[in-house]
Specification:
- This protein is mostly beta strands.
- The chain contains two helices and 30 strands.
- Among the domains are: 105 residues; 56 residues, no CATH class; 134 residues, Immunoglobulin-like.
């Protein structure tokens, strides 16, 4: 590699390309625009546009104030004035950052100064000392004596050339333009990501809900992003494994129109991109929340579901499977006519409801996946308290090779002060046929049987059926 670079440099000399002695340095003071695209898998794409004076010919550029967790293999720089005027001969990422331990390490074996202050008189004395070791403490030679962890301050003559104060990209560039020009440096960095969180508030009779959504950006990438144009990518972007408060609204109550300063959503490739309608600053080690959406009067349906399991059908059970939980779920259709109808990024939905005194109480939460428009959102709230169920296997026998029959009785008991509708979902293995049933049923999938029953208040409903299975 060194031979190739030497050959390249010699070739450039022969071609008449000049070398500049001065090293150009660029900081945030040169920054004109900043764009950051954040993915929900702890990844950010940074596009940093700066106006920089570069010497004509071959010179070095130190591009400072970049993310500490940058992926150096993704770095790219280009001139926005004339893309053909700027070429990269070599690039490096300097991350050997300045700190007291590293500074002292660089001066092991060299002479430094120690300043010791007399506690009683306040007088300071300066000693010439040789640093012998900086391993689990410091060892100095002062005169003919060895001092271990002496008190006082250490004075170093200068900062070593190979230590820097901030993460820095260093390029060897060949530039053909004179004067200032805008350049764009882009790179991927780990340590910054985002997630969506939702709050749903139910009405009194559990038929409608208000929904708000928040974007939480968490920045641990090692730098700040000041006055940046922020874009979010929602979707499952594949990555190769290698050895997140401001308030802006996308939806107004009862409608699905975009707000002036909120997120604008658009389809992008096989994902969705959300662009914030204003610039914002993401500080280092900051969790920032920005409002994503707000919608009200969303029709919902509360469902009580009593689930079975496939393994129930494969063996003989002598005793009832008693006191099983009845799950409580809420279904929301993500449609425009329901005041929604936007692609919803994956996140946690937390649900609240006001009690008789008007105070909001937390009633459950669930994780939703990325949900396109016109699809259904299913939120598990928890388990019902006053509605319980029991299963009893009344028969199980082998009819022939790979042919079996089983019979079940399901009891649903409702201790509420009003009637309850309960769905009974039975996942039956193999090819099956219901031979007899006490209630109407649906075959909702190839291996799923469903009953929907009304259970009177303080009452009980019993469902029995016999099924033949082949597997």
């Amino acid at each position: 590699m060194k031979r190739i670079m030497l050959f390249l440099v010699v070739s450039l000399i022969i071609a008449g390309v000049s070398f500049a002695d001065e090293v150009a340095k660029s900081t945030l003071d040169d920054q004109k625009e900043l764009y950051i695209t954040i993915y929900n898998n702890n990844l950010g794409l940074v596009k940093d546009i700066r106006e920089i004076s570069l010497a004509k010919g071959i010179s070095e550029l130190q591009f400072m104030d970049v993310a500490e967790r940058i992926n150096p293999t993704t770095v790219h720089i280009k001139s926005l004035v004339d893309p053909n005027s700027l070429s990269v001969l070599e690039q490096n990422y300097e991350y050997d950052l300045l700190n007291p331990t590293k500074l002292l390490d660089k001066y092991v074996g060299q002479q430094v100064k120690l300043i010791d202050k007399n506690y009683y008189t306040g007088e300071e004395k300066i000693y010439d000392a040789t640093l012998l070791s900086n391993n689990e403490g410091t060892i100095y030679k002062i005169g003919d004596e060895i001092h271990i962890n002496p008190s006082g301050r250490v004075i170093l003559p200068k900062i070593p050339e190979n230590l820097i104060a901030k993460p820095t990209l260093v390029w060897m560039l060949n530039n053909t333009l004179k004067g200032k020009q805008k350049v764009e440096a882009s790179y991927l960095t780990d340590g910054i990501g985002w997630k969506a969180d939702y709050v749903a508030t139910l009405n009194k009779d559990d038929t409608k809900a208000d929904l708000t959504g928040w974007v939480t950006i968490d920045n641990k990438s090692g730098t700040a992003y000041k006055d940046a144009t922020i874009q979010l990518i929602a979707g499952d972007v594949n990555r190769v494994e290698e050895p997140m408060v401001g308030v802006d609204r996308l939806y107004k109550a009862g409608t699905a129109r975009e707000a002036e300063l909120g997120f604008e959503e658009k389809a992008f490739f096989e994902y969705h991109i959300y662009t914030l309608g204003r610039k914002s600053t993401i500080k280092e080690n900051q969790t920032k929340q920005i409002s994503l959406l707000e919608a009200s009067d969303i029709p919902i349906k509360k469902n009580l579901i009593f689930y079975g399991a496939e393994y129930y059908y494969r063996n003989s059970y002598g005793e009832p499977i008693s006191n099983q939980k009845v799950g409580v779920y809420i279904d929301i259709d993500n449609k425009k006519e329901n005041n929604l109808g936007m692609p919803l990024p994956k996140g946690i939905v937390r649900v609240y409801k006001a009690d008789d005194a008007g105070r909001l109480q937390f009633v459950g939460e669930d994780q939703i996946d990325h949900t396109p428009k016109d699809e259904k959102i299913k939120i598990k709230m928890g388990e019902a308290f006053d509605v319980v169920g029991t299963r009893t296997q009344t028969d199980w026998k082998k009819i022939a090779r790979n042919v079996y029959e089983t019979a079940w009785e399901i009891s649903i008991r409702n201790h509420k002060e009003e009637d309850a509708e309960v769905q009974i979902i039975e996942p039956i293995p193999g090819d099956w046929t219901v031979l007899s049933s006490s209630h109407p049923y649906e075959k909702i999938e190839a291996h799923t049987l469903k009953y929907t029953v009304k259970v009177p208040k303080d009452g009980e409903e019993k469902i029995s059926y016999r099924v033949r299975m082949t597997w």
